[in-house]
Design goal:
- The chain contains 14 helices and 16 strands.
- It is of the alpha/beta class.
- The strands form 3 sheets. Strands 2, 3, 4, 5, 10, 14, 15 and 16 form an 8-stranded mixed beta sheet that branches. Strands 1, 6, 7, 8 and 9 form a 5-stranded antiparallel beta sheet that branches.
- Helix 4 crosses helix 5.
- The protein is globular.
């Protein structure tokens, strides 16, 4: 691969993380589950991608998210949030708030709608991102930070590109049975080795992958126990309350996720705006993600007692929230302002860009979604 070289201090941090992972592999008998490798690569204290100090977002980072593309994304989300707040509580929780852009845009748009917010709580695992958020949002007194979920919550929950960053298990079909991808060290480098599936993981493969035993040998894919656990925790947090959680991410329902032609799975790495498939490249300096199985997320939420309220692609959601009307609040004759906004909205809603690949899952209880979102619902496709 031809990728930008890291700075010496970044390379040294990656080498420290590689040594930490290699030591754990040795201590645990020569191999660890890929999910554990991914957890350490992303979240090891001070060294992991999200817990270290490297810039993640924007021109100097590794990727760009929807809130960074246009403030109209947050303004559209705010319209849906306003409808939920009117039926529940004037409180918002955002998981993984990035640079704080979505928080600022949502709060600004809600203020413009005359909707007050008592508290906007951010739950952020990245120390670097939390510091950026605290600087960017220091003039908004209702914003606060927590290290974990509160026990109970009513109101609006937002999670943009959170599920895709949760560690996944890799499984591969080999000699007519499913095996677990483990990570070992060979000749001083990380490498994959296979082991039989534990019973719990085997049951999850059967439950999550449609017609799992009909897939061909060599078929590699992901299952998502950590993300499913997050959905169950979300359900417990919202138990006894009123509200809705809006989860934005790229992915598919199960019947589209596990297609025969998707032999290599969806695991992808992002380093300095370059996408590539090698999770062992410079651990700690690159993001590692997998597409979301939205069927699994919906079932995990329902089984934990939190109903699914809606599911659709990002384009349908944003259009239902009036992003087109919001765009037209800028005079088309003012080309210097209108054309960049129009181009950004096109990127958010076009099927060739983010509009189709990105989905929105809404779960919640005792609230009604706006009629336009209800009309766009495609829950039957889950």
């Amino acid at each position: 691969m031809s990728l930008p070289l890291p700075a010496p201090d970044a390379l040294a941090a990656s080498q420290s993380l590689q040594q930490l992972i290699a030591t754990e592999i040795e201590q645990l008998g020569g191999a660890i589950a890929f999910s554990r490798f991914m957890e350490l690569a992303l979240y090891a204290p001070r060294l992991g991608y999200y817990s270290g100090g490297a810039s993640k977002l924007g021109a100097s980072g590794d990727f760009t998210t929807a809130p960074e593309i246009s403030p109209l994304f947050g303004a559209s989300v705010a319209r849906a949030a306003a409808a939920i707040i009117a039926q529940s509580a004037p409180d918002i929780i955002e998981f993984g708030a990035g640079t704080g852009k979505l928080a600022r845009d949502v709060l600004g748009a809600l203020d413009g709608l005359g909707v007050g917010v008592n508290s906007y709580t951010i739950i952020e695992l990245s120390g670097e991102l939390r510091a950026r958020q605290q600087e960017a949002l220091k003039d908004l007194p209702q914003v606060r930070w927590l290290d974990g979920m509160p026990e109970r919550f009513s109101g609006v929950v937002l999670a943009n590109e959170v599920l895709d960053a949760m560690p996944v298990e890799l499984v591969i079909r080999k000699d007519g049975r499913w095996m677990r991808q483990m990570v070992t060290v060979e000749n001083g480098a990380f490498a994959f080795v296979q082991q039989p599936l534990p019973d719990a993981l085997a049951a999850q493969v059967t439950r999550q992958i449609p017609d799992a035993d009909s897939l061909p040998d060599g078929y590699l894919t992901e299952i998502h126990p950590v993300a499913e656990g997050f959905m169950a925790s979300l359900a417990r947090m919202m138990e006894g309350g009123r509200g809705a959680a809006f989860l934005f991410d790229y992915g598919f329902p199960a019947h589209e996720y596990y297609l025969d032609q998707r032999m290599g799975g969806t695991l992808m790495c992002h380093y300095r705006h370059h996408a590539h498939p090698d999770p062992f490249y410079l651990p700690g300096l690159q993001d590692i993600t997998a597409h979301v199985d939205f069927t699994a997320m919906a079932l995990a939420s329902q089984e934990a007692g939190l109903p699914v309220l809606a599911y659709m692609n990002q384009s349908s959601f944003l259009l239902a929230c009036g992003i087109g009307e919001l765009l037209m609040e800028t005079d088309p004759e003012d080309t210097l302002r209108f054309l960049p906004q129009s181009k950004a909205v096109q990127k958010l809603v076009s099927p060739a860009e983010m509009g189709e690949l990105f989905k929105v899952l809404v779960v919640g209880r005792d609230v009604d979604l706006p009629e336009a979102i209800v009309r766009a619902d495609k829950t039957h496709r889950l």
